[in-house]
Each structure stands twice: as structure tokens, then as C-alpha cells.
Amino acid sequence: LDIINSFALKVVARNETAARKKERKQFRKGERGEMAMADQEPLSSILEDKERVKALVGKRVKRGPTWKWGDQDHGGEGTISNTGEWGEDGTHGTHKIEVTWAHGNKNAYRMGGSRNYRDLVIIDDIGLDDEMEKMLASALSEGGEEVQKLVGYKVKRGPTWATGDEDGRGEGTITAVQKRWLSSNHTFNVTWDIGGDFSYRMGGKRNFRDLLLIHPLEVKKADEKKAQHLAAIVSKGGDELKTLVGKKVKKGPSWIWGDQDKGHGTIISTDKKWGGSNGASMFVVRWIDGST
User: What's the pTM?
Assistant: First the structure.
């Protein structure tokens, strides 16, 4: 078990596909280069902070992937005029974004929350989340090889999520994609980081979004942050190591132990010393099949 990296979620890196390159070219138009995209913060991060949501007032928007409000926007653009929160009506914790449309009408829409609503897309500054939604929509529309290229991407629950907490409210990886001919939508198979394989609805006539794609840059940053945090704990040793007991793990990049892991496991004890391993820490793990 790689002590420094095994606790961090393993980054699922994928080479750029033709569709991905096409999206990048479109993104770079208007003198927006690769560095501009890399420096952007995902909209999901902004939606976690009420004060930063308030700062969105004045941003231009258009309808997003969870839009269900008919022709309120007249197919055009609008400007965020106010922000707030919805009440206890099933959208608790979801941001209430008030928009003044170009034709003069004002309406309120859902953003964020436990269902990851995206009734709107901010068009003043295209974020990482919006870029991934564009790529997803294109792949679902084209189908065939394009949608198969999504296998390996990281995902999280989306706005049409209708199941329980099998995701642990965390992330997972797309392992397979099938076309459901009778219902016109696709089925995405996902293995969650906490363990377990499940299937979800995507696209089709009802435009299902049980899942949202996570941008590779976002995955990389989160992975690096977790690796740094773990390295700091291991370097301190002692009681700090004990704080890792109960954490979920899976094999890391220096794994040499064959199929001992059985997918994922839980740290059940720690020890600062591992004989003959240059002072490395020893973690005892109980794997999903019950072995240690």
C-alpha cells in the first residue's frame, strides 16, 4: 500500500479526444488561451459560498441543462439581479438566482444545492463545469464512439439524481456506457470511490442528468490537495496517524501487492514503523471482501 498516495483519490487521466480538442478550440476563441481555462475556478466551488454567490449579481446568463421553465427567457440572455435561497419546499439549500431577461421580465431559478441544479449557465465567464456540460451534451447527441469516449471520466451526482446515497455524496468513475433504444437515453455504469457499481440515466428525450462530469483539472487539484494533506499527517506521525483510521483507500501508484485490494478498503490501524522500508508508515487495511 503506498502510504503517501493511496489515500488520495487516484486521478483518472485521459488523453484528449477529437471532440475534446474541438471544445478547446472553441474555448480559445476570443483570446482565451489554455492558461485562462486552467486558472478558472469551477462554478461548483463558487456555489458552496453564499458571499461569493452574491458576487454573481450583474453576470449575464442563459438557460442551463436543468431548465424546465418553458419560454420564460424568450430564448435569449439575461442578467442576474439578486440572489438568495429557496425555502423548505424540496429545494432547501439551493441558491435562488433572480434574473432580469432582455425582454424585461424577471424570474427566479435554481442553482447548486444537493441536487446540483443548473437552471442557468453563466456566459460572461465560461467555467469548467459549463465546459464539461457542453462536451457531455455533444457526446450524448452524437452517440456511438463519441459517447464511449466518456468511459474513464470522473463524475458526481447530477440534478436528476433519483436514487439514494450509494455515491457517499462523493465521486465515481464511468466504467461503461450503453444505449437504451426504447427510452432513447443512455445508461452510464459508475464505480463510486467508496465502492459499489450502479447504473444511471443520461440524455434522451427527457434530457436526464443523473450525473455531472468533473473536469480533469478539478480532479487533479483535489487529488494533489489530498496527497499533500496525507503527506503532512504521515510526516508528523504519532497521534496524527490515528486520525486516518476509518478512512477509505484504494491502491496507489507504487502498489506491488497483486489483487490483495479487491477494489477498495478501510484503514483499521496505523503504525509509524515498517521494517526495512526507510521509515515508511504501515497501514492495516480491511478490504471490501473482509480480508486484511
Answer: 0.51
Q: Which string of DSSP letters, residue by residue, matches 222-247?
A: HHHHHHHHHHHHHHH-THHHHTTTT-
| pLDDT given at position 148 | 93
Spatial distance between the Cα atoms of 101 and 72, rounded to a whole number of angstroms? 8
Strands (E), the chain: 60-63, 78-85, 95-101, 106-112, 117-118, 120-122, 154-157, 172-179, 186-192, 197-203, 208-209, 211-213, 248-249, 265-271, 282-287
d(CA 277, CA 139): 47
Conformational region of residue 81, where left means phi above 0, alpha means psi within -120 to 50, and beta covers everything else: alpha
Residue 156 and residue 214 in contact, taking contact as beta carbons nearer than 8 Å = yes
| DSSP label at residue 105 | -
DSSP-derived letter for residue 212 is: E
State residue 268 phi and psi, 5-degree precision. Answer: -110, -20
* Grid cell of 205 as nine digits: 428525450
Backbone angles phi, psi at 252, to 5 degrees: -105, -175
pLDDT digits (tens, 9 = 90+) for 185-217: 899 999 998 888 999 999 988 889 999 998 887
Closest CA to 59 of 124, 130, 154: 124
